Amino acid sequence: MNFAHTRIHRALKRLTQGRGSRLVSAGLCVAMLSACTLSPDYHRPEVSTPAQFKQAEGWTQANPSDAIARGAWWEIYGDKQLDALVEELNRSNQTVAQYEAQYRQAQALVRSSRASLFPSLNLTTSKNRSAQGTGSSSSSLSNNSSGIRDTYNAQLGVSWEIDLWGKLRETMNANESSAEASLADMAAIRLSQQSELVQNYLQLRVIDAQKRLLEATVATYERSLKMNENQYRAGVAGPDAVAQARTQLKSTQADLIDLAWQRAQYENAIAVLMGKAPADFALAASNDIPALPQVPLSLPSQLLERRPDIASAERKVMAANSNIGVSRAAYFPDLSLSMNGGYSSSSFNNWIELPNRYWSVGPQLALTLFDAGKRSAEVDRTVAVYDQTVAQYRQTVLDGFKEVENYLVQLKVYGDEAVVRQEALDAARESLRLTENQYKAGLIGYLDVVNVQTTALSSERSVLTLLQGRLVASVQLIAALGGGWDLQRELPAE
């Protein structure tokens, strides 16, 4: 730093001596000097990272790219229609389009700040008409026409702010970091929208399965009602059995109707995520539910590289660090070089001729001597902003760990629950079979059959609802691990 100051002092001293050519040469020498960097050295904020996830006991490290081709993480569910829907989202989602436009704005700021490092060239042409009085009103009136003068000017100017203290470069670095953060934000919102669509699709497919279950159940209950009505007419069964059969049928039909609006909500949400009006989109029912994947897990160190929101938070820390240098540079003088030349004449015919030329060249050194603490306050503000972004980065990392732990334990608990739910369903099916045989043999009444049928149906729906929860949790876990987002591939090279 002291050595740089010595070189800059010598260069500035030479700027005050000699002719215009020496001024330009000296200015170029100053521009070639190594400028000071006033921002602190950047280090990634430290975050406590555990060796493994608490809820990942028994799991081993795996590389998600082995199961998810080229970042298309939704392909792990093996559903071609789902793949097509997500690809349409990638092209047409309007929320992603907003963030893409923000990223282009950030890129434009980077280009603008980079251009500030170079000289600017300006061309100005003008025509002025002026008049001046002779000092008395009478003579001014008599000579008014002869006092009018036309002036033609053509000027070419070059100006260049020498980045002695790194202010311009730190501004460019801050804008570059902000642009990278904007790109990461776009990746994060794309991942969020993809995750939402996949969750909606999987839940819709489970509703299709519930709809098939209820339709089959309604058909069974209709046959039971008809059988009880026939027995009642034959005097074998009482009116209570018919009432029970009809109540059971109507309740199940109501549940089937209720599924229609639930399915419509998911279908409409998928349409909007793809950038379409719900009226222009329809998703046919399917007989298949995508299989629950075996989700590969990453260690926390890999999580930091894969999650776009964490990458964005770190880029914002980098930008805030550079802004500290920009605010500190305000304590030092600004040095700019300017050179202007052109032609000025009162006649258009001989305007561009050698006798009418003029030129000027010289440096300008500007330093604020007193500002009542304004610069100090700005430095304090940028330091506080840096501390804020560091805390936000650390919180984002902690939230990432929390989300992964939550989804891990959710999947583990759901997996254990699924075993018990399936055992309960198997028992309910066996109980229903035995009860129906006893009813056909005349050993029990129909009310006993209704109770067992209700239990069996409830068990069937519970298994499907649990499967729905496990599928959604798997999507949420993949998104929490960063999905297929590749930091090195998506972010610009530094």
List descriptors.
4 strands; Outer membrane efflux proteins (OEP); 3 domains; single chain; alpha+beta; 494 residues; cell outer membrane; four-stranded antiparallel beta sheet; elongated; coiled coil; disordered C terminus
Provide structural commentary.
The chain is α+β, with helices and mostly antiparallel strands and about 500 residues long. About 60% of the residues lie in helices and about 10% in strands. The chain contains twelve helices and four strands. The protein has helices at about 1-15, 20-30, 80-90, 95-115, 135-140, 165-235, 240-275, 300-305, 310-330, 375-440, 445-480, 485-490, and strands at about 120-130, 150-160, 335-345, 355-365. Strands 1-2-3-4 form a four-stranded antiparallel β-sheet. The longest helix is centred in the middle third of the chain and has 67 residues, at about 165-235. Mean pLDDT is about 85; it is low at about 1-35, about 60-70, about 140-145 and about 485-494.
* CA radius of gyration: 38 Å
Could you name the CATH topology of the largest domain?
A: Outer membrane efflux proteins (OEP)
| CATH class descriptor of the largest domain | Mainly Alpha
CATH superfamily membership of the largest domain, which one? Answer: Outer membrane efflux proteins (OEP)
Q: What is the total domain count?
A: 3
Approximate strand percentage: 5-15%
CATH architecture of the largest domain: Up-down Bundle
How many distinct helices?
12
Give the ordered list of helices and strands: HHHHEHEHHHHEEHHH
N- to C-terminal separation?
25 Å
Strand order of the largest sheet: 1-2-3-4
